[in-house]
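Problem 12. The chain below contains 273 residues. Write out its predicted structure in token notation.
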Amino acid sequence: MQIPVILLVLLGACVGLFVLVGGFFAIRNAFRNSLIGQILNGLKQEVNEGKVGPEDFKLSQAMANPKSVSDLSEALIPRINKDFPDLNLSQMRSAAQAVLVKSLDLQMQMTMGGNGDTIDRIQTEIQGCGIGCTRSLSEELWHKIGSARADGRTLVYRDVIVHKSGINEYQKTSSTVEITFQYSIQCLQYQERNGKFISGNRATPTQTRYNVKVINILDADRFAWEDIKGVGFTCPHCGAPVKHLGTDVCSFCGTAIKTVDMRIWLVDKLVEI
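Solution.
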């Protein structure tokens, strides 16, 4: 019996289609099992679960272009050295940078949970950076953390990198001396609620700047006691409290006092600009 030509053509087409479909599924399965396929599959799952959204796929030049800083070090360092010849500005800049990074980390940790967290923990953690902070700074950070917690938000700062730094300002008032450092940083910065993304960007690092103001309390009588009670600066000879830290001699026994001590410098402000 002779098979019609049209039947042979249809049979050949079916066989070809079967081979083509089989090849497609074989290629698809091979791709799924590849490293790229596994990454894309995991990404698809995160999209379905609401962990990743369109905002995470925005392309930008943020990672390649860190923000510049307004560095007036060349003009300000001679003035600072004249007033405080023994001050290690490099050490202070590193300590202020550590406080900035620590403050971001504390905001993330304390909004993730931890019912035992208190404002005193902020004070203690910052002391570990090699320089203290004023009570007003601790209260400001605590207020921001408390506000986020009350709203069920987690403040996330991941992979923090400091690109540049410099001295931005130097001022003297009747009660303090203020040195402002400026830092250019990059980090993944976003907010979540109940584990779900609500704002920011989880894929592209945010580039921003912070001013970190460090103060020296020249006259304790004119400054809030809460800001200096943790300093504990006393005369090394008689133990009398030193209130006027701008002086070089103890007002009780006349002993010379070296006032350049990191304990009398406190971080007072962290301002994103």
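Discussion. The chain has one domain: 66-272. Students who got a different answer should revisit the alignment rule from Section 12.3.
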